Amino acid sequence: MVQWFLLFISRFYTTFVVRTHMHEIFVILKMASPR
Q1: Distance CA 16, CA 34 (A)
Q2: pTM
């Protein structure tokens, strides 16, 4: 039960970090876009 809870928190945290980095990468690409 504890391991499942830790796994759930780990996956949620990983998803949050990935989304944050994706947003940063999107902003960087948008600013670097030769428009």
Answers
A1: 29
A2: 0.47
